[in-house]
Amino acid sequence: MELYHLTVSSLAKKIKEKEITIKEVLDNLYTRIEAVEQKVDAYITLTKEYAYERAKILQERLDAGEDIGIMGGVPIAIKDNICTNGIKTTCASKMLENFVPFYNATVIEKLENAGAIIIGKANMDEFAMGSSTENSAIKKTKNPWDNERVPGGSSGGSAAAVSSEIAYCALGTDTGGSIRQPASFCSVVGLKPTYGLVSRYGVVAYASSLDQVGPITKSVEDAALLLNVIAGNDKKDSTSANLEKKDYLQSLINDIQGKKLGVPKKFIETGLNADVKKAYEDALQTLEDLGAEIVDISLDYAKYSLPTYYIIATAEASSNLGRYDGIRYGHRAKNFDSLEELYVKSRTEGFGDEVKRRIMLGTYVLSAGYYDAYYKRGQQVRTLIIEDFKKAFETCDAIVIPTTPNTSFKFGEKTSNPIEMYLEDIFTVPVNIAGLPAISVPGGFDTKGMPIGMQFISKAFDEETLLQIAYTFEQNTNFHESKPTI
Ligand code: GLN
Fold it and tell me: Pairing state of beta strands 212-217 and 189-192?
C-alpha cells in the first residue's frame, strides 16, 4: 500500500515506531503532490523547504528518544485564512496576496507543539465567502471525483487535498458550512466544533460570531485526534470557552444502541435531490439497524436560517473587512491623488465581486435607518433558532440530516445567481447560527458517482456524542473506503 493512503493515526504510529522516517513521509507525499496537484489545484502555497527543515528537527528529537507529540511528523494542509508565521496567508484574495504574518494562529502553535508539519496553504473562496471555491482570486480547485465539478467551499482546497491524498489531513474554517459542505462534496470527514471550543486567534475574521476552525480528515478517528490537538481555552480569544480538556479519542465507541436521533422531516422536505434523499433514507435505516431510535423533531425557524445568516454574516464581515484600507497592510493602489481615492482604489482593486457584494449588504443592514429592520431582527430570529435546537435536544441525543441538499455542481453553474449558491447551505447554516457542533461523514454516492455527506449535529460542547455516532456510522458503512481515481 502507498504510504499516502494512511490515516493520521496510523502514520503517526509508524513514525513513532521507526518503521519509516519523517523524511520518507515527505518524499512520498511531495512526489504525490507533484503528480496530482496540477489536476486538483488544491494549494496556493507549498511549504516544502520549511517542511523538510521541520522534519529534520523532529526526526533528531525522535531519535534522541523524545516524545514528539501525537501528530509527530504528520503533514497537514492549512486553509489560507489561518495565519502562519513566515508563510504567506492570502485568504485567496488579491488584497492579501503578499501578506506574510509574523505570528502563528493559536491552532498552528498547537499543531506544531503536537509535532505536525505544515506542507502547504490550501485554496479557498476569497475571505471564506462562498460554497464552491470559485471565488478564489488565485486559482480554481477541482473536485477530485470529477474535475469539471467544484470541490465545495469555502474550504475547497483543504477538502480536495485530503480527498485526493495530497494531504493526510487539513484545517478548514466553517462560518456557515465551509468545512462540512466541501467535506461532503469530496467524500471526507469534516468537523465543525462548538463555537468557542477552538481558538480563533490568528484566524482572519469573516463573521466573528459564527467562525470556527475544524479538521478535515479521512476518518472520524483522525477528526477526534485533531480536535484533541486544537481544542482548548485561549486567553488571546475572548470568546474561547474555559472548559476542562477532554480526550475525544475516548468517544470512538462503535455503539449507538438506544441513542435517540432527531429527524426534522418538515425542514428537509423541500429541495432535497432524489439521490441525496435515497442516501438519507438508507442512512436512517442503517442507524436504526444499529440500535438507534429515530425520533421526529421540528425545527420551525430553521427555514429562516439563510436570510438570518446573510444579515448577521455580512454585517460582521463589513465591519471586519474595514481594516483593509490600503494603508496598514494589504493591497495598496499605485496611483491616487487623495486619501479618499487611496481607500477607494485599493479596495476596488483588492476585493473580488462576492466580497464587495457582502460588504455592501452588511453596511446597508447596519446603517442607521435599517439597523432595527434588519440587523436587530436578524439577531432576534437567531435567538428563536437557538431555542428551536434547545427544544429538539430535549427529545434526542443528536440530529441527523444530509450535509447538503445536492451534490457537487459544475463550474459556473451557480455563479451567475448568488441566491442559488446561498441555498446550497440551508442544512449547514443553522448549526453556525446556534453555535453547535456538527460533523459530515461520507454517506453515499449519487447516480453520477459524486459523493453525498451525512451530517450529525449535537448539543453545544457535546462533541463526544457527535463523534461516537459518526464513528459508529462510519464503521458500519463502507462509503469512506472509496477513493477518487486521480
Ligand atoms: N457558503 C457560506 C458563505 O458563502 C459559508 C461560508 C463559510 O462557512 N465560510 O458564506
Answer: antiparallel
* Distance of alpha carbon 314 from alpha carbon 359, whole angstroms: 6
Is 416 an active-site residue? no
Fold of 3-257+436-481: Amidase signature (AS) enzymes (3.90.1300)
Measured in Å, residue 310 CA sits from the centre of ligand 1 at 10
Q: How far apart are CA 230 and CA 107, in angstroms?
A: 5
Element (H, E) at 467: helix 463-475
What single string gives the DSSP state of each residue in 386-441? HHHHHHHTTT-SEEEEES-SS---BTTTTTS-HHHHHHTTTTTHHHHHHT--EEEE
Say what percent of the chain tops pLDDT 70. Answer: 100
| CA 12 – CA 71 distance, rounded (Å) | 6
Cell of 134: 470559485
Choosing from 93, 132, 154, 163, the catalytic residue is 154
Q: Measure 172 CA to ligand 1 centroid, in angstroms.
A: 12
256-271 average pLDDT score: 93
Confidence of residue 435 (pLDDT cuts 50, 70, 90): very high
Q: Residue 60: what pLDDT? A: 98
88 is catalytic: no
Asked if the model's pLDDT at residue 264 lies above 80, the reply is yes
H or E, element range at 458: strand 451-458
Provide residues with CB under 6 Å of ligand 1: 128-131, 154, 174-178, 206, 313, 425
Helix, strand, coil % in the chain, rounded to nearest 5? 45, 15, 45
Q: Distance between CA atoms of 10 and 77, rounded to whole angstroms?
A: 18
Answer yes or no: are the C-beta atoms of 244 and 467 closer than 8 Å.
no
Cα 90 from Cα 330, distance rounded (Å)? 9
